[in-house]
Amino acid sequence: MAMWFYQLSEEIWPTTDYRFEVWEGEKSEWGLGPSPRLNGLLPQPGDTVALFYAKTGCDEPGFYGIAVIIRVYEQEGEQRIYFRPCAPSDRLKIWPWWDGEVIAIADEIRQRANRGRFWSVSKDVQTRIEKGIHRWVGGAVPKSI
């Protein structure tokens, strides 16, 4: 199972709209943008996606959730994903994970291409995201991660 990093923009989709529209267990659908950073990979059903708001123009940046990809398809020339947010996404959208580790993770994933929208994530970075989210929302990291 692969993980993907989806960078959201306050300018295009405000955090207030995200908080109202995206709920754990309910399906959502978004475009991947004109030039996703896929490293030769394609997202697949069952993969996860970390939902992230960049700091630029955003008063509350950080990780807002984790979702499972249900379907990937093309519509009007744009690749799109259909996904279902999972716990603890509802908690993260109220209290986004934002600290020095998040900045380091985002910078490592984006590699000077800050204006992109969608990137593949290495297994090492995936583990850092999963552990960081558990630490942020629960104060502990499960031994299985």
CATH class assignment? Alpha Beta
Task: Give the CATH architecture.
Answer: Roll
* Broad structural category: alpha+beta
Number of domains: 1
Rg from alpha-carbon coordinates: 14 Å
What sequence of helices (H) and strands (E) makes up the elements? EHEEEEHHEH
Note the beta-strand portion. Answer: 25-35%
Low-confidence stretches: none
The description of the largest β-sheet is: 6 strands, mixed
* N-end to C-end Cα span: 14 Å
Order of strands across the biggest sheet? Answer: 2-5-4-3-1-6
Oligomeric form: single chain
- Count of alpha and pi helical runs: 4
CATH topology heading: ph1033 like fold
* Average predicted confidence as pLDDT: 88
Query: How many strands in all?
Result: 6
Helix coverage percent of residues?
25-40%
Broad shape: globular
